[in-house]
Write a structure and sequence with these properties.
It is a single chain. The protein is α/β, with parallel strands linked by helices and 400 residues long. It has one domain: TIM Barrel, CATH 3.20.20. The protein has 16 helices and twelve strands. The strands form three sheets. Strands 4-11-10-9-8-7-6-5 form an eight-stranded parallel sheet. It has a two-stranded antiparallel sheet with strand order 1-12. Strand 5, helix 6 and strand 6 form a beta-alpha-beta unit. Helix 5 packs parallel to helix 6 and helix 15 crosses helix 16. The structure holds flavin mononucleotide. The site of flavin mononucleotide (FMN) has 20 residues, from helix 3.
Length: 400
Amino acid sequence: MTDADLPASSPDFASFQYEIYAAGLIDQRPALPVSAEQLQQSAKQQLSPEAYGYVAGGAGSERTMRANLDAFERWRIVPRMLRDVSLRDLTTSVLGTSMPAPLMLAPVGVQSIVHPDAELAAARAAARAAAAHGLPFILSTAASHSIEQVAEAMGQARRWYQLYWPRERRLAASFVGRAERAGYEAIVLTLDTWFLGWRPRDLANAYLPFLKGEGVANYFSDPVFRAALEKPPEEDPGPAIGHWAYQFANPTVTWEDIEWLREQTRLPIVLKGIVHAEDARRAVDAGVDGLLVSNHGGRQVDGSLGALDALPAIREAVGGELALLFDSGVRTGADVFKALALGADAVCIGRPYVWGLALDGQPGVEHVLRWLLAELDLTLALSGYTSVAQVAAEALVPAP
Ligand SMILES: Cc1cc2nc3c(=O)[nH]c(=O)nc-3n(C[C@H](O)[C@H](O)[C@H](O)COP(=O)(O)O)c2cc1C
């Protein structure tokens, strides 16, 4: 192909690197690091030990956090050559939500402990990422800004809502109804957090931000929650926080309750935290629409399997019947590629974007998303692929 034959380029995420090199000509270095590890180190310098420990830490010995990273080490990409990779198409669609690349922002609660703009900044960054289209943002129930505030900050940009199932069904129904009315396009029900995992870093600091009134905005703004209080939370926060502690989680929930949730909403339902193929099959029978294969970033069951290790068997178990998302341990564009190859339809980013938020609010999150998109685009191209749909198991071999 001659130069003249080259087609006009598609959204060129990879070109972010030339922007960085060009700035080098006037002696400018990127304002923030371009690797997850360095971002974390920089954020550590900036955050209080309590806030840093809350985000960085995991359950128990933190072996599961390491297992998440190690699981990616066990696979190697096998690049293919001479396939014309000048134009790439990273677009995809999951459960009716179209996205410019198979990347979403994982639900991360209580972001106010790392930056005052918290979820508003992260949601705006998601909305602005990847040119005009934006990457979908999953808002946590445990957020520091409400369902409605985040929706307003995002405008038309795509968003899903993550539900922590509270003690009372009527509060669950209220959260889901609010999300539906505020333009969220799916409900992600988290199943692995009926109790907080044993987290030594937070225990050593005796630090649980919710008890200080952080990360409770969705509860304090909810009519059902407020109706149970004698005085509004603004007037008397103590009992409101006590009621939060009562409502936060409901460990009695079983598969039968999923049927009830199915009846509460017309939105697609995604179960987050599934890591066993039998649970995945059960989810098909329960009539849900998707799964988010995840171990909560190693924050819940110390010693549990790396999340990526669970993915191939779950894809095999559900075939094409359910959409599959993945998170836990994704740190690079190559990691995203590997998760796609092992069966994920899209991949959620967790801690790396939170470090970006800690360092520079909205622009910090935008920076992280831009380099992840660039690295994914380059990994795709240099491995010989031009669309995410082409990426399958044969793109990988087990590491020697
Ligand atoms: C500080 C922090 C808060 C989190 N809060 C939530 C939450 O409110 N709801 C939820 O479903 N998952 C929550 N998660 C888990 C993430 O959605 C995701 O599963 C995890 O971050 C993936 O692991 P990774 O960040 O190591 O890649 C949280 C994770 C972190 C680090």
